[in-house]
Amino acid sequence: MKTLIIGASGQIGKMTTKKMLERGHDVVALVRDKDKLADIGSAQLTIIEQDLENDFSAAFDNIEQVIFSAGSGGETGADKTLLIDLWAAIKAIDYAVKANVKHFIMVSSIGADDPDNIESEIKPYLVAKHMADQYLQRSIVNYTIVRPGTLLNEPATGGFSTSRTANREDAVINRENVADALAYLATLHPQNLTFELFNGEQPLKQALCQ
Predict the structure, then answer these.
(1) Which has the closest alpha carbon to 109: 159, 46, 164?
(2) What is the CATH number of the domain that holds 117?
């Protein structure tokens, strides 16, 4: 199955790209700057350079699965949040429908289920994620929506939980854990599943059964 990774040069996207290739997947990496993937060499990797603010529908040719891990980043303004986290995500879903994609994995965020519940400066980001998630859920594409907790730059632990803790400070997950989860889900192809994901004590397969 050929998988398109949108945002493949981001931290989670790049780790996911590497892990997918290690598992023998054919990967199409969609990035704005292909030089950011210059350290990855694989005959199973195709790199497409394109700005998500433009038409990127050509990247979906012969694609069976999509992982949307693109994000505007914490240092950009509300305009980029709107254009990348919402509008580019919606365009990607529309392109996936037209291309008859079999599975669409969306990297969302904790709090995207109810942005009004969290008083934070990232509320515009959560609103964008909320609307993009809803658009995917209402589409005809089989989807998996992953809502990670607060992201940490630590090595993978192999332990997961899908249950939010009462203490918000403990609702965290290592970026590499997220990448491992995405690579696993890309093989599992669950049917129309939405869940939050945190560091925990269980293998991912067991955590998803909770």
Answers:
(1) 164
(2) 3.40.50.720
Known catalytic residues? Answer: 125
Looking at residues 65-74, what average pLDDT do you find? 87
**For 172, what's the count of Cα atoms within 13 Å in the CB-facing half-sphere?**
10
Which tokens sit at 131? 């609307």
The domain containing residue 95 runs over which residues?
Answer: 2-207
Query: For 122-132, what is each residue's pLDDT tens digit?
Result: 899 999 999 99
C-alpha pair distances (Å), 75 with each of 80, 121, 145, 152, 173: 10, 12, 24, 17, 21
Report the number of distinct structural domains present in the chain.
1
Give this prediction's pTM: 0.96
The amino acid at 141: V
Alpha-carbon torsion (100, 102, 108, 114), positive or negative: positive
Phi and psi at residue 175, in whole multiples of 5°?
Answer: -55, -40
Two tokens, residue 210 = 């909770």
Rounded CA separation 194/173 (Å): 17
Residue 81 carries which DSSP code?
Answer: I
CA-CA distances (angstroms) from residue 127 to 58, 88, 112, 162, 175? Answer: 28, 14, 7, 21, 22
Cα R_g (the chain), whole angstroms: 16
Q: How confident is the model at residue 19 (pLDDT cuts 50, 70, 90)?
A: very high
Digit-coded pLDDT (tens) for 80-124: 899 999 999 999 999 999 999 999 999 999 999 999 987 778 899
